Amino acid sequence: MPLRIGTRGSRLAMVQADKVCSLLAGHGIETEKVIITTRGDTETSVPLHEIGGQGVFVRALDDAILSGHIDAAVHSMKDIPAIRPNGLVTGAILERDSPADFMAHTANADQIRVVGTSSTRRRAQLLRSDASLDVRQLRGNVDTRLRKLKEGYYDAIILAEAGIQRMNLNLPGKRLDPGEFVPSPNQGTIAVVNSDQPGIVEIIQLLDHAATRHDVEAERAVMEEVGGGCFTPQGIYCRHGHLIAEILALDGSQTVRIREDIDSLENARKCGRSLRVEGRELIRDAYRKLGLDDDR
Q: Does residue 238 lie within any of the structural domains?
């Protein structure tokens, strides 16, 4: 029986699932794609933080694995929440693609005033770089966002460069330096989540890229210690063990940043605890302004 691989139905999600299926085929594993609709895909008229953050893209796929409807699911790893259900494992982390953000625009660079993004992190980083920008909410899959850019709702929109590359899109714009626009933890990485049944675990592990796992697990360790998820503007990026992590005010007016060479997950967690302490007031302020509860 084919291994059932769950995916969201967007074009990018399908491309990522196809990549996983192709890699498994290279190991002689037959697969079947199963499309799962998530709340994040259907409720695009409100800010992401109001319906539960990035985790809304994952929950329906988790439930499909736990119910036995599918055997595994393909995700952009940055969408996977820190707290995971029992019975699931991140069986494979593929070699990382570009971690950077990309500003796609049709206007001349010096004429960009209105920028679309649903990310509090991207909003804060944009305003830090230019406080005069008008950063507006933009939800939807890549095709929807590009359509709204073309129709003139925005002068520019922010996308993950990895997604653009995976979809073979040729867009006018510029790559944003990850050293300045520090990416979301795990951005540019595809992960496969699967049930913890030994037979399935052994198959999915064939796709795991050890060096990428080392870096993204360090990022997640920092993220887990900082807390806040997509509600707090935070960038966390580790490459070959070198970590850059920051917390920002929602309006980009303040930043707390650390740089560290990471040699263990405990070291990463220590950095996360330090960043959380230094950025505590920025986190509290973000929660307060977004109308969320925070007990830190």
A: no
User: 233 lies in a domain?
Assistant: no
Catalytic, out of 71, 79, 101, 155: 79
Count the alpha carbons within 13 Å of 249 in the hemisphere toward its beta carbon: 11
CATH number where 105 lies: 3.40.190.10
Quick check: helix, strand or coil at residue 28?
A: coil
Q: Which residue has the tokens 């960038």?
A: 235
Q: Is the dihedral of CA 23, 28, 29, 33 positive or negative?
A: positive
CA–CA distance, 240 with 144 (Å, rounded to integer): 34
- Active-site residue, 294 included: no
Strand order in the sheet with 134-136: 134-136, 114-116, 156-160, 101-105, 173-176
Residue 140: the pLDDT is 84
Strand order from edge to edge, sheet including 190-195? 31-35, 3-7, 72-76, 190-195, 88-93
Judged against a pLDDT cut of 60, whether residue 71 lies above it is answered with yes
The answer to whether residue 270 is domain-embedded is no
Same domain flag for 41 and 14: yes
CA distance 83 to 166: 28
Does one domain contain both 69 and 195?
yes
- Identify whether the C-beta of residue 135 lies closer than 8 Å to the C-beta of residue 187: no
Residue 52 lies in a domain: yes
| Pair (74, 140) in one structural domain | no
Residues 28 and 127: their CA atoms lie apart, in Å, by 49
pLDDT class for 74, splitting at 50, 70, 90?
very high
User: How many distinct structural domains can be found in the chain?
Assistant: 2
* Distance from C-alpha of 275 to C-alpha of 247, rounded to nearest angstrom: 8
